[in-house]
Amino acid sequence: MSTIKNNNRKVAEFLLRIQAVQLSPEQPFTWASGRKSPIYCDNRRILSHPEIRTSIRKIASAMIIDRFGLPDAIAGVATGGIALGALIAQELKIPFIYVRASAKSHGTGQRIEGDYSNFNNVFVIEDLISTGKSSLSAVDAIREAGLEVVGLLAFFTYGFHGAVERFEQKRCPFFTLTDYPTMLEVATESNYITEDQKSQLYSWTLDPVAWSDKQL
């Protein structure tokens, strides 16, 4: 098994173990949009588990170096990518900044927090890729500030086709520590879900809207 595949599986195991990712096709979760989903992801839970936090920090840092080399700085996307991004910046011993969801309405009205006057490029850290819109909004803000975006890492992705297309259109290379198919494989092998549940969970990614409508 390749190092990348092994790391994908290891991170999936971590996220399931600490319930950062929960799978429940019979009793779906309600997202902020109101849609129903058989999966819920909260990667902030990583921060509460020191050993797993350390392992994931090291895996992420090594993968960035292997794929892109050492960037000038790390930029976290608010809010989930802030603490996780700061950990990676500390591991790599490079500066850290973060990008707000929108410009603050007081003070200088800036959207990027931190001192970015002494470097030219950043690597972006996001906790989760769903549609990709919030991640790419942060990428736009960084580029508008005159910095180059080397690439983006997210801890998990649902793998929606539209998100991949958006990243391609913005010419922003990205990768994730683990993904939905890997998560389902690991969950099935560990008896977290059954083969039948696995099929239901796969069907959600084919048409999330239709899947949600059936639950209403």
Provide the descriptors you would attach to this structure in a database record.
Rossmann fold; 216 residues; globular; alpha/beta; 8 helices
Describe this structure as you would to a colleague.
By secondary structure, the protein is of the alpha/beta class. It has a single domain, classed as Rossmann fold, CATH 3.40.50.2020. 45% of the residues lie in helices and 21% in strands. The chain has 8 helices and 10 strands. The strands form 3 sheets. It has a 6-stranded mixed β-sheet with strand order 7-6-5-8-9-10, sandwiched between helices. A two-stranded antiparallel ribbon has the order 1-4. Helix 1 runs antiparallel to helix 2. The N and C termini lie far apart (41 Å).
Question: What's the total helix number?
Answer: 8
- Rounded to an integer in angstroms, the radius of gyration calculated over CA atoms is 18 Å
Overall, the morphology is globular
**Relative strand content:** 15-25%
State the separation between the terminal residues, measured CA to CA.
41 Å
CATH class: Alpha Beta
Q: Give the low-confidence spans.
A: none
Q: Which fold name is given in CATH as the topology?
A: Rossmann fold
Q: What is the helical fraction, as a range of percent?
A: 40-55%
CATH architecture: 3-Layer(aba) Sandwich
Compute the number of strand runs.
10
Strand order of the largest sheet: 7-6-5-8-9-10
Order of helices and strands: HEEEEHEHEEEHEHEHHH
Biggest β-sheet strands, sense, barrel? 6 strands, mixed
Number of domains: 1
State mean pLDDT (0 to 100 scale): 94
